[in-house]
């Protein structure tokens, strides 16, 4: 274990020699292991491999317009809990937040720490992949079997999310694009729609950026994973 992990196990969790913990190696393997102390160091002796129940059947990719401070941290945490596989921050014409190059690396390190802690808390077997911030124009180059943009405007007609998902029963990768606090310009929406994105509505109420992302993630995971038939092992 690292020094930080050792401190958490020994001082915070107060685990004893031989206590059983759950270990994931970020490849999808989940193991049960016994805690072993060697003077000031801690290790885990693998006992057996167990079934991974934390992964979603669909790879969920969230492209999120940059939002302010604590809201962004909250979004990272909750997205990890809801099973997102990859997060792609982007800057669009209406983004208030701008990331300076000299601060970008430090911010990404901090964001990865938030994601790691969230993955540990909800017992995920894999970490969320966090990409460097990109421009809006680069979003159309991201490959996925189903590509969605969340957009709500009185003058534009969006598809119902359930109808779009019903028309795509078994995608491998789903890309969701959600705007920042200022949303999207009409030109930006038209550009993504022209490149094959489905413009979807999340209901009759205007949602905050972080709420929209969480709602969309939860809806898609529920549709493809939780609403299906149970496995025999789950009965």
UniProtKB/TrEMBL annotation:
GO molecular function: any one? rRNA (uridine-N3-)-methyltransferase activity
| UniProt entry tagged with the keyword Transferase | yes
One Pfam family per UniProt: Methyltrans_RNA
Enzyme class label: transferase
- Cite the entry's keywords alphabetically: Cytoplasm, Methyltransferase, rRNA processing, S-adenosyl-L-methionine, Transferase
The Ribosomal RNA small subunit methyltransferase E PUA-like domain covers 2-36
One of the record's GO cellular component terms? cytoplasm
Instruction: Write down the InterPro entries for this protein, in alphabetical order.
Output: Alpha/beta_knot_MTases, PUA-like_sf, RsmE, RsmE_MTase_dom, RsmE_PUA-like, tRNA_m1G_MTases_N
Q: Where in the cell is it found?
A: Cytoplasm
Which catalytic reaction applies to this protein?
Answer: uridine(1498) in 16S rRNA + S-adenosyl-L-methionine = N(3)-methyluridine(1498) in 16S rRNA + S-adenosyl-L-homocysteine + H(+)
Q: One GO BP annotation here?
A: rRNA base methylation
- State which Enzyme Commission number(s) the record gives: 2.1.1.193
All copies of the Ribosomal RNA small subunit methyltransferase E methyltransferase domain together span 57-220
Family membership: Belongs to the RNA methyltransferase RsmE family.
Spell out the NCBIfam families in the cross-references: RsmE family RNA methyltransferase
This molecule's function is given as: Specifically methylates the N3 position of the uracil ring of uridine 1498 (m3U1498) in 16S rRNA. Acts on the fully assembled 30S ribosomal subunit.
| Name listed for the protein in its UniProt record | Ribosomal RNA small subunit methyltransferase E
Q: List the taxonomic lineage.
A: Bacteria, Bacillati, Bacillota, Clostridia, Eubacteriales
């Amino acid at each position: 274990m690292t020094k930080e992990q050792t401190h958490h196990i020994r001082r915070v969790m107060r685990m004893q020699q031989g206590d059983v913990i759950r270990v994931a190696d970020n490849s999808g393997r989940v193991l049960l292991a016994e805690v072993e102390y060697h003077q000031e160091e801690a290790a885990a002796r693998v006992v057996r491999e167990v079934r991974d129940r934390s992964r979603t059947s669909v790879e969920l990719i969230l492209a999120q317009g940059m939002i302010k401070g604590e809201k962004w941290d909250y979004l990272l945490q909750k997205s990890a809990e809801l099973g997102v596989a990859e997060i792609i921050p982007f800057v669009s014409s209406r983004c208030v937040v701008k990331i300076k190059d000299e601060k970008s690396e430090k911010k990404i390190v901090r964001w990865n720490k938030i994601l790691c802690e969230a993955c540990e808390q909800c017992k995920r077997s894999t970490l969320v992949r966090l990409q460097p911030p990109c421009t809006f124009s680069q979003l159309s180059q991201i490959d996925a079997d189903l590509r969605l943009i969340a957009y709500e405007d009185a003058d534009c007609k969006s598809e119902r999310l359930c109808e779009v998902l019903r028309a795509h029963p078994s995608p491998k990768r789903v890309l969701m694009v959600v705007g920042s606090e200022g949303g999207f310009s009409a030109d930006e929406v038209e550009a993504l729609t022209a490149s094959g994105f489905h413009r979807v509505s999340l209901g009759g109420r205007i949602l905050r950026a972080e709420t929209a992302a969480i709602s969309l993630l939860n809806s898609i995971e529920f549709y493809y994973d939780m609403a299906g038939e149970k496995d025999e092992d789950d009965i």
